[in-house]
Amino acid sequence: MLHGLSDPDIKATTNLIKQRFVWKSVNKDVQEWCKFCIACKESKIHRHTKSPLGLFKLPNALFNDVHIDVAGRLPSTTGYTFVLICIDRFSRWTEAFPMSNQLTETVSQTLYAVWISRFGVPETITSDRGSNF
Q1: What single-letter DSSP state applies at residue 78?
Q2: pLDDT band of 45, cuts 50, 70, 90
Q3: What is the CATH number of domain 65-127?
Q4: What is the mean pLDDT of the chain?
């Protein structure tokens, strides 16, 4: 295939093909071909810089260090489409709590009502720094 000659991207490959051939689903076919092309995957320039992983201090007590994240949009169950996931680093105890949205206010109210009210205020709360935190 023409794509293998110089390993261009999807757009360039489509243009090369269209210069020589015509068929109804050329755009879709070329896109599928490029998506699964091993040479493309191996030769792509990765522009994402990778930072070293941060180091966490070892937890020394239950519920002192908590990791939180929000998952969703999930299929609605009685109006809930998101879940707040809380994980205690010491015990790896994990709980998920339903939420109707992922607004910062909702996340903080849920965290307070269902985690902090039961286990106390943790020393550290770690998140992925998403917009809802």
Answers
A1: T
A2: low
A3: 3.30.420.10
A4: 84
